Amino acid sequence: MQETIVKVGGMSCQGCVKNITGVLEKLPGVSAVAVSLEAGEARVSHDPAQSDVAALKAAIEDAGFDAA
Ligand code: 9UX
Q1: Is 19 touching ligand 1 by the criterion CB < 6 Å?
Q2: Which residue, of 13, 14, 39, 59, is most buried by count of CB atoms within 10 Å of its CB?
Q3: pLDDT in tens, 21-61
Q4: Residues in Cβ contact with 28 at an 8 Å cutoff, skipping those fewer than 6 apart
């Protein structure tokens, strides 16, 4: 298990936080998600063999946000 912090751009309300949380929780191998609007970041505990950092970022971008 690995904890990754992804910087997320474009979140403007708690709805965005919920949307991104849901998208990340659906990915295989993701065990915990904490998204902070204030910090503009997502903390994700994941198995990199199932969902790597690039997959996390791709999912965030597919949801319409910027990921770095
Ligand atoms: Mo808030 Mo975000 O009104 O995807 S839900 S802007």
Answers
A1: yes
A2: 59
A3: 999 999 999 999 999 999 999 999 999 999 999 999 999 99
A4: 50, 51
